[in-house]
Structures are given as C-alpha cells and as structure tokens.
Design brief:
heterodimer, A: 233 residues, mainly alpha, two-stranded antiparallel ribbon, B: 82 residues, 2 helices, rod-shaped
C-alpha cells in the first residue's frame, strides 16, 4: 500500500490528542532504550560479562568519536549524542519488524530531533561563552554577516531534518513500490541496503550534531589547533 | 484541466529527480575519488579522511534529497490539485 509519505492518520485518540503510528513506535523505542539501559547498568562489575563488554565498547566508541570531532571532554555531551545516535539507529532498523514503519520516515520525528540539536547548540554555546559572547559569534568575520549567520542556523537545522527524512522515507518507499510490483521476498536486498543507509544516516546525524555544537563552543580553541596540525607533518 | 495539471506534475517530479541527481552524482564521484587518492597516499590517516568524507558526502547528497522532497511535494501535496 503506497500512500503519501507526508500524511499521517491518527490511530486512536487519547482524550483530545490524536495519536499516530510513529508516536506509538517512538514511545516503544524510548521504552526499550530506557528499560534496557536500566537493566544493563543494574549489575555492573569490574570483571565485565559479555553484555557489559559490548556496552562498554559502545560507550568507548561514542566517546572517541566525540573527542575526535569536538576536541573536548566527552563527559558533558555523551548523554545527548549517544542517545541521539542510539535512538536514530534503532528507529531506522525498526523497519525490519513487520508492520512497523520507522518513525524517522515521518518528517515530524526528524523535525523534533533536529530541533533538539538546534536548542542544544544554543544552550551549550551560551553555557560555555555567556550570552553576550555567544551572540557576538554571529558577527564573527564582520557585522555584515549577521543575517547570513542567522539564516545558516535555520537552514542547517532544516537540512538535518530533510536529510534524515529523505533517506529513510525513500528506503521505505522503494521497498513498498518493489513489493507491490514484484511480490514477496524480492525487496530483501533493498531492505539490507536500507539497514546500511540507516546506520550511515544515524552516524551522519550525530556527527553533524557534534560539529554544530562544537562550532558553537570553541572558536577560541580552534585558533590554536591549526598550529598543532602544522607542527605534526 | 485537473488532468493536465496532474500529468504536468508527474512530468515535473520526474524531471526534478532526474536532473537533480546529476550534479550530486558527479560531485560525490569526485569526492570519493579524491578520498581514495588521499587514503592510498596516507593509509595511516584513513580514519580521519573517511569520517570527513562521510560528512561531506552527506552535505552533497542533501542537494539530491531536496530534489526528491520537491518531487514528493509536487506529487502528494500539490496545492493546485484539489
């Protein structure tokens, strides 16, 4: 069944609020993440079990990525970045379960995620620099650039939204079209390709979130970074 | 009249996707070729290069995705077809 990817129809009404399928899937994924994390961290030991080793590997990898991209201590940003990555990864993979559409294939979920990144950029920028010095970064090369910098903040949030939405939705859409044209079991290679695209898009979304937050944090430290880089070769 | 608008909309969606894919495809090809070259010259910096490559490819790919979104808007959310 191929319907418009921009439309969502409510499943049921919780009081006055219409509840759609992506919302239900989102809450299910959130519950899985929260309960899974609570269960996984309940019995931590110094001689880790297999499961704890996998978790530690995951956290260490995310930490290394944050350290590489943002050049700061990963401690403060681990929860936001890690949650974004895991949530997008799991929701992109959730199309494997029959009858479930990934919530990221609807533009509202992606807009909410991008809005979180947008607010986090402003929040961390103000927290590390102070309000006035953060606002001063908008006039960074010269004051003529102020409108362009403001527009850039909005367009890059919009492009985060549209990139994730376009990639995931087009995957779901193509699987639907091939299924209706060719029949059962034919779209399996396309679904495998979707898994790869989903993982890459989750990675790209988080890397871009890190780049945006990192850019809001530290222009003062970036002035001494190139001298280090020039020294190494 | 509505039939004509629908036919033109489908044609416009096809043109938007096909021509919108040309530029990003050429750009991504150049970017990947340059990254391969760089990795072949300096295999030890492969990690940094591939991370930057992924982010860059995502940026380039966005242009094609914009065209796809325009095509979908024309097909499914066309304001002139009622």
């Amino acid at each position: 069944m191929i319907h418009s990817p921009l439309l969502t129809t409510p499943l049921f009404h919780a009081g006055p609020i219409p509840v759609t399928a992506p919302v239900v899937t989102t809450w299910a994924i959130m519950a899985i993440l929260v309960i899974g994390a609570a269960l996984a961290t309940r019995r931590l030991s110094l001689t880790p079990s297999k499961f704890q080793t996998v978790l530690e590997l995951l956290v260490t990898t995310i930490d290394a990525q944050i350290l590489d991209t943002m050049q700061t201590e990963p401690q403060k940003y681990r929860s936001l970045i890690g949650t974004l990555f895991l949530f997008i990864l799991i929701s992109n993979c959730s199309s494997l379960i029959p009858n479930v559409e990934p919530p990221t294939a609807h533009i509202e979920t992606d807009a909410a995620l991008a809005l979180v990144v947008f607010c986090a950029t402003i929040f961390y920028g103000i927290r590390t620099r102070g309000v006035l010095r953060y606002l001063a970064t908008f006039a960074e090369p010269t004051w003529i650039m102020i409108p362009l910098n403001v527009v850039e903040q909005i367009t890059r949030t919009f492009s985060l939204t549209v990139r994730l939405f376009g990639n995931v939705m087009s995957g779901v859409f193509v699987v639907g079209i091939v299924l209706s044209l060719a029949g059962l079991l034919v779209p399996i290679p396309l679904m495998a390709l979707d898994l790869l695209t989903g993982a890459v898009q989750a990675y790209i979304f988080t890397v871009l979130a890190m780049v945006f937050i990192g850019a809001a944090l530290a222009d003062s430290s970036s002035s001494d970074k190139p001298t280090i880089r020039q020294g190494t070769p | 009249m509505t039939n004509l608008i629908q036919a033109i909309s489908i044609l416009a969606a096809a043109i938007a996707v096909s021509f919108g894919a040309i530029g990003p495809a050429l750009g991504e090809g150049r970017a990947v070729a340059a990254a391969m070259d760089a990795i072949a010259r300096q295999p030890e910096s492969a990690g940094t290069i591939s991370r930057t490559l992924f982010v860059g490819l995502a940026m380039i790919e966005t242009m094609a995705i914009y065209c796809l979104v325009i095509a979908l808007l024309v097909l499914f959310a066309n304001p002139f077809v009622k």
